[in-house]
Amino acid sequence: MSWRQIQGRRGGRARGVGVGSLGTVYLTYNASNGKNCVATIRNNPGAAVDMALWIEVPETWERGEDYARYTSYAGPAYVYGKGHCVDWGGGISNVHVQVYNSNCGALKEHRVTEVR
């Protein structure tokens, strides 16, 4: 699966955060249904590795996640978040990224990258 396929399914606004040099975690928002979508996609598919993604609406506690061993992508996962901030992130192998306060208007996003 490619990001264009995911984005084409969901439409709307999109952004991505690099997972080191291993791939990208993508977030898209569909204004027509209020849903956010997250997927983690490897730059170089191959043997299965640990991959993850998560998304949460802190105000409502709605959460989506996917953690397993995959060859190319994890997800997608969806949450309803119209009018709310979302926190999201993902990982490939031992590199993980987290983004807080997305889609919050005036609030600034906060990004964290960890090697575990």
What's the main sheet like? Answer: 5 strands, antiparallel
Count helical runs: 1
Q: What gross morphology would you assign?
A: globular
Unreliable runs: none
- List SSEs in N-to-C order: HEEEEEEEEE
Strand order of the largest sheet: 5-4-7-8-9
Radius of gyration, Cα only, in angstroms? Answer: 13 Å
Give the tally of β-strands.
9
Structural class comes to mainly beta
- Rounded to the nearest angstrom, the distance between the terminal CA atoms is 26 Å
pLDDT averaged residue by residue: 86
The helical percent reads under 10%
Strand content: over 45%
In brief:
This protein has one helix at 3-10, and strands at residues 13-19, 23-30, 35-42, 49-57, 62-70, 73-80, 86-92, 95-102, 110-115. With 116 residues, it is mainly beta. The strands form two sheets. It has a five-stranded antiparallel β-sheet, with no helix packed on it. Strands 1-2-3-6 form a four-stranded antiparallel β-sheet, with helices on one face.
